Amino acid sequence: MANFHTHLGVGALASVGVAVAGFSTQLYGLTTALLCAIIGTLGSLLPDIDLEHSRPAAQGFLVVSLITSTLITILYANRYSGDELILHSLMVWAVGFLVLRFGVFETFSRLTTHRGMVHSIPYMAVFALVVVCGAFYGLHLTAFVSWLFGLVLFIGSMVHLLLDEIYSVDAFGLRLKQSFGTAIKLFEKDKLVQYACLYLVLGVLYYFAPPYQDLWRGLVRITRQLMG
């Protein structure tokens, strides 16, 4: 299994690459590119939300909570105006940080087992769709930007899972370690009911998510540009 700093470094590199690719093909502007790089990097740390006693992970998720709450505040401030905007923005930041650090991250670290369901493709897809719906309905961003943020978060999380699988291969001994196959997975035979519920949540989130066609058309356009 790759360590926390490896996940952070490789995840940041991949996320910056994705952000630059979209910006250079004029899929989005500079501000959106910067946000994509940050969100993708955060996504590359997300599967380790199930770590409970790792000091680097605890420090990392403290930073993640700070950055994420700041991002939410910036996006909130860009959408609204008024005499009490500064006060409201500070309240949004404080609530966002407390909910993330001592609500979401703390709860997951205590209730989950490392390399369990959190280390799976559908779980990361759920997180991505939560971002999509939260950005669209909560921050009133466009469907294009909402899906874009969800996509880069998902890409970052897949980089994390892929790294874990790569580190599960002993290249010199030409053998697979016991942890191989515990990162990238669609289900587990001994948790069929839990995964059924997870896929149900995934379906509900997708049903309420905004239309994705704008982002899809943009991705098709830049793919054609790159290929020809």
UniProtKB/TrEMBL annotation:
Q: Which residues cross the membrane?
A: 27-46, 58-79, 85-104, 116-138, 144-163, 192-209
Identification of the protein by name: Hydrolase
Q: Which UniProt keywords apply?
A: Membrane, Transmembrane, Transmembrane helix
A Pfam family recorded for this sequence: YdjM
Per the UniProt entry, the signal peptide is none
Give the coiled coil ranges. Answer: none
